[in-house]
Each structure stands twice: as C-alpha cells, then as structure tokens.
Design brief:
Length: about 230
C-alpha cells in the first residue's frame, strides 16, 4: 500500500482527499502547513506527496523547492492555477505532475499511479549506487555531488541532470531524451536543458567553448565524458 502525504490547509478538501485516497487503497497522512509537511517528509518519508499551493505559512512553490532540497519523493501539485507560466514554473521547480482543481477521485488515483510508476519502487531508489566519473563523485541517495573532494551546491534539477549524464557517461544524450527522462516532460522547450547545462558548467568550473566534462555534440545532444 503506497503512502500519501496530503498537504492541504482547507479541512473540507483535506477530508475529501482522505476519503478518496483511502477508498483507493492508499495510506494517508496529512499536513495543513508547509513547515509541518517538511517535518513529515524528513521524519517519515511518504511514497508520494499531494501538495496544495495555497498554504497559510508558506507559498506552495517555496514548499516544493524546499522538498526538493531534502528529498526525491514524487510530488503531485494540486492547484487552482491553470496559467501556463505558473505550470512551467512548478514543473521546473521539481513537481512530477500537477492537477488543476476541481478533479475527480479517479483522475487523482490515475495520476498518482503514473507518478509512482515513473519513480520506481522506493527500495530500488534507495539502492542507487554512487557514481564516479573522473574527479566527480555523485551519490544519488544522499543527493550530493563532489568535484575533487569539494561539494557542489546544486539545485534539484541541476543535480538530477548531472546524475543522469554521469550514469550515461560517454554517451551522447539528446535534449528530447533528457526532457523525457529527467524532467519527465518531453514537450518542454530544449532551452530548459540549456539553461541548466549552463549553470552546471559554471559550477564545474568550465565553459562551453572549453568543456572538461560537459560536451555539446552539435545537432545531436550532450555527452559527459569520463576521460578528462
């Protein structure tokens, strides 16, 4: 039975979600504030989070970013905001999927099942090995990356991108594949990848014109090389 943390401050909506999710066989815990949700995720990590954006203590987008600083738990955002700019911002901040209110219990269950399938079993995620590429050491479980012993300060997406390229070291990976496998949103603009690559290069101390690890293969994709 998958465990769901429902982060919702409205008691009526929270109660309805508990009823729906319990009926579909989930174990349900709840939090009504952002800091409470972060504490729950830290102390007893759920399998998936359903996150409302209109919380009384923190904006839901800030909560999402904080979650991504401490956990890889899948996050499904439940929002009344249907503006494209807001949705793109959510996905880029680390949301695995989103639903615009109101929605049916069946749709919620289907979205949660899809998110959980993409994330894979929790025990499988916990067994991900440390990856060594040149002077890079990437620990997927601890979500840390070190270059020659120095820890890199990376955003959630930067870390995910670096870990993905390192796991596919010496292979050219297209931007479309990166968007599908890392962002799980293949319809986003290729520029999304380029922005994060540029930030990664700065933190790795290299430039696109003189790459050390991150090589662009024009017209094909990106390659992280292991022999530097």
């Amino acid at each position: 039975m998958a465990s769901v943390l429902v982060v919702e401050d409205d008691p009526v909506i929270r109660g309805a979600l508990i009823e729906i999710l319990t009926a579909h066989g989930y174990g349900v815990r709840t939090a009504s504030q952002g800091f409470e949700a972060l504490r729950e995720i830290t102390q007893c990590p759920p399998d998936v989070v359903v996150l409302d954006l209109g919380l009384p203590d923190l904006d839901g987008l800030d909560v999402l970013r904080m979650i991504r600083g401490i956990s890889r738990v899948p996050v499904l955002v439940a929002t009344a905001r249907d503006d494209d700019t807001e949705i793109i911002k959510l996905l880029n901040a680390g949301a695995d999927d989103y639903m615009v209110k109101p929605f049916s219990g069946g749709q919620l269950d289907a979205r949660l099942q899809a998110v959980l399938r993409r994330a894979g079993p929790a025990d499988e995620r916990a067994r991900q090995p440390v990856v060594h590429v040149g002077d890079l050491r990437i620990d997927p479980l601890a979500r840390t990356a070190r270059l020659a012993g120095r820890e890199l300060t990376l955003t959630r997406r930067e870390f995910d991108l670096l870990a993905y390229l390192a796991a596919n070291a010496d292979q050219v990976v297209s931007r479309r594949r990166i968007l599908a496998d890392v962002w799980q949103q293949p319809y986003l603009e290729d520029q999304t990848v380029d922005v994060h690559l540029s930030a990664l290069r700065r933190k790795l101390g290299e430039r696109a014109a003189r790459p050390r690890y991150l090589h662009t293969v024009r017209g094909i994709g990106i390659k992280l090389v292991s022999s530097v």
